Amino acid sequence: MSMPTFAEFQQNNILRVENSLKQLIAPPTVAPYRLHQAMRYSTLNGGKRIRALLVYATGYLLGEKISLLDHIASSIELIHAYSLIHDDLPAMDDDDLRRGKPSCHRAFGEANAILAGDALQTLAFEVLADTDTSPTNKVNCLKLLSQASGSRGMAGGQAIDLANTGKKLSIAELENMHIHKTGALIRACITLVACLKYQPQDDAYKKLKQYGDYIGLAFQVQDDILDETSSTEVLGKTQGKDIQADKATYPALLGLKASKELAQELHDSAINCLTGFDHKAAYLRNIADFTISRIS
Length: 296
Known about the structure:
Layout: H1 6-24, H2 33-43, H3 50-62, H4 66-88, E1 97-98, E2 101-102, H5 104-108, H6 110-129, H7 135-149, H8 154-163, H9 171-194, H10 203-229, H11 232-235, H12 241-244, H13 250-254, H14 256-273, H15 282-293
Helix pairs in contact: 1-4, 2-6, 3-4, 3-9, 3-15, 4-6, 4-9, 7-9, 8-9, 9-10, 10-14, 10-15, 14-15
């Protein structure tokens, strides 16, 4: 039996994770009504679902149960949704637009936005704790997602970003920031699935983790490129916001041409990490291609 095309894989699994999220987040008819409305507004508003797709692609490669992958993908998407709500707040990146709609604090007020982010974060760990796997696997997954989300991961990366606004960073410093801010959660999409089958010292685990590292950075480099070359309408968020906020970006440090070359190098390194895996790694290769070719 032939594998579904990548387009079919995308469509099927985006639908899966969105159906899962709809069931996991309380409906707006349940009190507190405004809070649940804000949570659903910010989570069920489209997006590429690249993080969920990485979970499903890794799970396909390793032969994991689809119902288990639904929980892992949903937990990561919930963390991602919370992070976007908080990133857009006036005290953070102060953005009025997200995925082509008013950002959560613009639609529901700042207090409700903060609470919605908080509630989505805690729901993510509840979902992961309910995953149908062994207690050891649950603990490992919870630990990996906690690390990816906390001060040594995404939150730490945001703190580094805020502390360095208006400052000129080196490429190494910029890479360190994005390894935490963007890369940590993307890497977790791979490692939360890989840890179900492998130990951290296993060669296959290390290769998949490295793939996640390269994809995370490639994703950010492409984001920085699009912030300069795309439009608000296409991006669904304010174009040129990083430049306006005087933030360090890859094009600002390297120029557009060199940034595009770096994205391609990171893509190639990610693909090389998959050497030795069979044809079922095709979707991970497809996602690497998509990461640097996307236009939004």
